[in-house]
Design brief:
Blueprint (H helix, E strand, L loop, with lengths): L1 E5 L2 E4 L4 E8 L8 E6 L6 E6 L5 E3 L7 E6 L4 E6 L8 E7 L3 E2 L3 E6 L1
Parallel strand pairs: 2-11
Antiparallel strand pairs: 1-3, 3-8, 4-5, 4-9, 5-6, 7-8, 9-10, 9-11
């Protein structure tokens, strides 16, 4: 199993980023996929999840600003992040089947 995140970077407050997570080694289309994040000095927290019927769920802290989606043809899950805040700064991780983790991608939101 391999999960490879990309799309992180430095963005200004109020800006947008789209994270991608390309998966391999398991049946992507039948797997629940999630995004987590971990800020410095804090525990890793769940951000968003998407089930096999494309139903997305969100943590209250990102609801209305982030959108999770998936492309089963590309074995990829995305996290569109809009109206970013400084408190969104963290390493973002992709997770598959509540079991496998990616290596993470850094998102830094700065003024």
């Amino acid at each position: 199993v391999q999960l490879v995140e990309s799309g992180g970077g430095l963005v200004e407050i109020g800006g947008s980023l789209r994270l991608s997570c390309e998966a391999s080694g398991f049946t992507f289309s039948s797997s629940v996929m999630s995004w987590y994040r971990q800020a410095p000095g804090k525990e890793r927290e769940w951000v968003a999840g998407i089930n096999t019927e494309d139903l997305g769920m969100y943590a209250d802290s990102v609801k209305g600003r982030f959108t999770i989606s998936r492309d089963n043809e590309k074995n990829t899950v995305y996290l569109q992040m809009d109206r970013l805040k400084s408190e969104d700064t963290a390493v973002y991780y992709c997770r598959a089947r509540n079991l496998y983790w990616g290596q993470g991608t850094q998102v830094t939101v700065s003024s």
